[in-house]
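Hey, resending since the last one bounced:
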Amino acid sequence: MFTRTIEPAFYDTDALGHINNTRLPAWFELARNDLFKLFTPDLNPKQWRLIMARMEVDYRAELFYGHDIEIRTYLTRLGNSSFTVTQEARQHCTLTN
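The structure tokens again:
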């Protein structure tokens, strides 16, 4: 498991102080770099060997500005030519996606 802590910026919020739903996929992308470095250590796009075929996000709870978010990244399935990455966002130790 890889773990990355995100400190939300004010621009990540909507008018009510909630984190905008579009931010979570961007943070997941950032957190996947830790896993992708196993395949392309310098993350050089010209040497990239991977393609993301599908992404699905299930939102379970709101995220709020002013509190860190922990992104956890797991490799949950390894096949012959593909693998599955599972990611979680947690705030105050509560699963939010």
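The chain has one domain: 2-95.

Sorry for the duplicate.
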